[in-house]
Amino acid sequence: MKSLAVAVLAGSLTLAQSVVPVEKEPHHHVAFENTWVRVLDVGFPAGVASLFHRHSLHNVAIRIAGGTTRTDPVGGEGRPQTVPTGRVVFYSASPPYEHRVVNVGTSAVRILDVELFGATPTADTSADDDVARHVVEVENEHVRVSRVQLGPGESLPAHTHRRGWLAVVVAGRTPGEFAWHLPGSRVSVGDATERVDLVEIETK
Fold it and tell me: Which InterPro entries match (predicted)?
């Protein structure tokens, strides 16, 4: 009888910690996907934990609404971390990694998780790679992530990049709004009526 109870408990623990692909995790919603990127809109109300899930692609996580979360590896428990709105982090998936996220704070947390498919981007070599007002925060062999900040009354003239890029609004206007731009596209940002914080993710 004791052996049966132990077996049932072991089975329950295995079931509780089964791992799903990140795009199948209920709090990770696929908001956009093309040849180069997949955007997951991730939301955790206070006190909520995700399922354990697997990241198999390199990804860039942008905190749209910061807060205090704990990241638990399978079979373990992490430490709470308070991450501010606007934080950008690149995560390597070589090798793939598994975890769950627990919102241990008192407010909802929102993240845009941009997965990189690794497809060779179509570069427009005739286009200028404009970097005026761009502050590079992450650059490696997979991606370049830049931040653009505008104050009230400021604007960003039409600019372009040689590779495709995803522009994400972090603060001002509509936080979490994003748009994909093809290589060589010319994009401007009109006069800001408030502080605007943008993040641009260029695939490589």
Answer: RmlC-like_jellyroll, RmlC_Cupin_sf
Alpha-carbon distance of 72 to 91, in angstroms, equals 16
Q: For residue 112, give the 3-state DSSP assignment.
A: strand
Domain ranges of the chain: 19-116, 135-203
CATH classification (class only), 135-203:
mainly beta
* Size of the chain, expressed as the number of residues it contains: 204
Q: Which residues contact 137 (CB under 8 A, 6 or more apart)?
A: 88, 145, 146, 147, 199
Q: What is the token pair recorded at 55?
A: 């990241």
Residue 139 corresponds to which tokens in the numbers above? 């650059």
76 Cβ neighbours under 8 A, 6+ residues apart: none
How many angstroms separate the CA atoms of 67 and 72, rounded?
16
> What are the DSSP calls for 165-188, one per residue?
EEEEEEESSSTT-EEEE-TT--EE
Q: How far apart are CA 2 and CA 40, in angstroms?
A: 45
Q: For 19-116, CATH number?
A: 2.60.120.10
Per-residue pLDDT of the chain (204 residues; tens, 9 = 90+): 444 333 333 344 444 469 999 999 999 999 999 999 999 999 999 999 999 999 999 999 999 999 999 999 999 999 999 999 999 999 999 999 999 999 999 999 999 999 999 876 677 767 677 778 899 999 999 999 999 999 999 988 888 888 899 999 999 889 999 999 998 888 888 777 889 999 999 998
Rounded CA-CA distance 56/92 in Å is 9
